From TrEMBL:
GO molecular function: catechol 1,2-dioxygenase activity; ferric iron binding
Catechol dioxygenase N-terminal domain boundaries: 34-101
Superkingdom, natural source: Bacteria
Keyword Oxidoreductase part of the UniProt annotation: yes
Cofactor or coenzyme needed: Fe(3+)
SUPFAM superfamilies linked to this entry: Aromatic compound dioxygenase
Name this polypeptide is given: Protocatechuate 3,4-dioxygenase beta subunit
Length: 288
């Protein structure tokens, strides 16, 4: 005897049919996430009513995003960032006390394989740009120093370009480094003052959002990942307060506590920045 007929799909019941099928397999966070995603996706399709050709264009775009992603460039991360999804994930998971330094997002240019460097090292391997001295301290909520904290830093150069955007023009690991705080929780290094930059338009994500009219100019900033045993990992930016694009960051990552003054040193084009990172204790059982 033939089995029961499959439930038909129509414009009103499509997500319900999917949900019933998946619910029959049991419960769990993955199934609940899929049901929620499909329900919203089907609702959007019913609202926008794309033609089959328009739907194929969307599939083509997502395929191009995949093709544009590799070890040096992460177009999927860029898409998540520019849609505000990465910033929203950070916010819904941000349970840090107000005294702790706010977190932001890593962005598409992060590299985890940066070399360790001695305190005071110059991470500008080509020396191009106005000099910037960066120093700071890592401490807990009570103001106690955190010695041995790891600080990974990465930034664009004076032209607003990252090393992994120009592998043939910039030295490997230019403007990147991993430092460890000293016994007083302090760190310092030399670099160049970064420039703001336009989000890459040579890939499918930038081209699409540029066509849609979204502002794609990021304000000048330095990026950091700060880790220490027993503390929450902090990923954050420090922004140049003189940049005119602070109010339209396309990654939705500018927060008032992270906007800093780059102080001029003497008559030469040299600058100084000092900042204290405040880490919150890690909560037991917290999800990564």
């Amino acid at each position: 005897m033939a089995g029961p007929m499959a439930s038909p799909v129509d414009t009103l019941t499509s997500s319900e049919v999917f949900s019933r099928r998946l619910a029959a397999a049991g419960d769990g966070p993955l199934r609940q996430a899929l049901i929620g995603a499909v329900t919203h996706l089907h609702a959007l399709i019913r609202e926008l009513k794309p033609t089959p050709a328009e739907w194929r264009n969307l599939i083509t775009f997502l395929t191009e995003v995949g093709h544009a992603s590799d070890d040096r460039r992460q177009e999927w991360v860029l898409l998540s960032d520019l849609l505000g999804a990465t910033a929203l994930v950070e916010e819904v998971n941000a349970h840090r006390p107000k005294q702790a330094t706010p977190g932001t997002l890593r962005g598409p240019f992060f590299r985890a394989d940066v070399p360790a460097r001695a305190l005071g090292s110059d991470i500008s391997l080509d020396g191009v740009g106005e000099r910037l001295s960066v120093s700071g301290r890592v401490q807990d909520l009570d103001g106690k120093a955190i010695p041995g904290a790891e600080i990974i830093t990465w930034q664009a150069n004076a032209a607003g370009l990252y090393e992994n955007q120009q592998p043939d023009l910039q030295p490997e690991f230019n403007l990147r480094g991993l430092f460890r705080t000293d016994d007083e929780g302090r760190f310092h290094y030399l670099t160049v003052r970064p420039a703001g930059y336009g989000v890459p338009e040579d890939g499918p994500v930038g081209a699409l959002l540029l066509k849609a009219g979204l502002p794609l100019r990021r304000p000048a900033h330095l990026q950091f990942m700060v880790t220490a045993a027993g503390f929450e990992t902090l990923v954050t930016h420090l922004y140049d307060d003189s940049d005119p694009h602070l109010g339209e960051d396309p990654l939705f990552a500018v927060k008032p506590e992270l906007v800093c003054r780059f102080e001029r040193m003497g008559d030469k084009p040299c600058w100084r920045l000092d900042f204290t990172f405040v880490l919150a204790r890690a909560k037991q059982g917290a999800r990564a």
